[in-house]
Write a structure and sequence with these properties.
It contains eight helices and 17 strands. It has 293 residues and is of the alpha+beta class. The strands form two sheets. It has a 15-stranded mixed sheet that branches. A two-stranded antiparallel ribbon has the order 10-11. The two termini are 19 Å apart.
Length: 293
């Protein structure tokens, strides 16, 4: 099925990976008969403007880049009542992993013609939307390091960031009001998952679903550095849940604070500072996804 599409591209995604992929993506989409407009972004605010213009022109808004641009465009599309498509072009591409979209850009283009429109949930930190996982604590320090890094490690940049951050980590105390129930955790991190994948393929919340109207709250309490490091590889298979330091709950809303300042990161970008409230808005985003078997 040929569609009217507007490709909203972050040229800098993946250290320029999106720019390198763009010619083959554009050729694939035009070859499939789509009515295509290609729009590189200059900022997140510019991406908002492009998404608004695409919706007004009755086009599917196709976000191409990393999870940051996809999450930003998703929020705008949900607010405007449009339809989202996704073509991976970043380092992590965790949203694609979480919902079964192809990890290769040209292969993902096929879903824009053959996929089905489904309604999925969005998470919000305050008024800021996110698709994948919002986290803070140790995760904040890792993300701060990743943002500063220029190492060409692809999705493994997140593993590098984690390994490099462990040595200097000091436990923090987190207060989480989970649907009104107060939980206090001292340790490593708190993460609130809409889809279950983050950090370049880490399956933090393997049972999370973008279609269940719930968030998965994952807390990691104090444990030794050596045990924490041994558990890191388990994240890629979701097998870390057997660790006694890891706990998972589901919620619709979580009020979060900590005993020292942290920025909250989601989809690879800082989206809030503590204290903040994270909530879910069920079924607010229409998105093209692979047809269910």
């Amino acid at each position: 099925m040929a569609r009217r599409l507007q490709l909203v591209v972050n040229p800098a995604a993946g250290g320029g990976r999106a720019t390198k992929l763009l010619p083959s993506v554009e050729a694939a989409l035009r070859g499939a008969g789509h009515d295509l407009v290609v729009s590189p972004t200059t900022s997140l605010e510019h991406a908002d403007e492009l998404a608004d213009a695409a919706i007004a022109d009755d086009r599917v808004v196709v976000a191409m880049g990393g999870d940051g641009i996809v999450g930003r465009v998703a929020g705008r599309v949900a607010a405007g009542g449009g339809v989202l498509g996704v073509v991976p072009g970043g380092r992590g591409n965790d949203f694609c992993r979480g919902v079964g979209l192809p990890g290769q850009a040209v292969a993902a283009c096929e879903v824009l013609a053959t996929g089905e429109e489904r309604r999925i949930d969005l998470g919000y930190a305050g008024d800021m939307p996110f698709l994948c996982v919002a986290s803070f604590g140790f995760d904040s320090d890792v993300q701060e390091r990743v943002l500063r890094s220029r190492l060409p490690l692809g999705p493994f940049i997140y593993l590098y960031g984690a390994l490099a951050t462990v040595a200097g980590w000091k436990p923090a105390t987190f207060s989480c009001s989970v649907d009104g129930e107060l939980i206090v955790v001292t340790g490593w991190s708190v993460a609130v998952a809409n889809s279950g994948v983050y950090g370049g393929g880490m399956r933090l919340a393997p049972d999370a679903s973008v279609e269940d109207g719930l968030l998965d709250v994952v807390t990691t309490s104090t444990t030794t550095r050596s045990r924490f490091l041994r558990a890191l590889p388990k994240l890629y298979k979701g097998a870390h849940l057997d660790e006694p330091s890891v706990s998972v709950r589901t919620a619709r809303s979580v009020d979060l604070s900590a005993d020292r300042p942290f920025r909250v990161f989601a989809d690879g970008d800082p989206i809030a500072s503590l204290p903040c409230t994270i909530s879910v808005r069920p079924g607010v985003l229409r998105v093209l996804l692979p047809v269910r078997p």
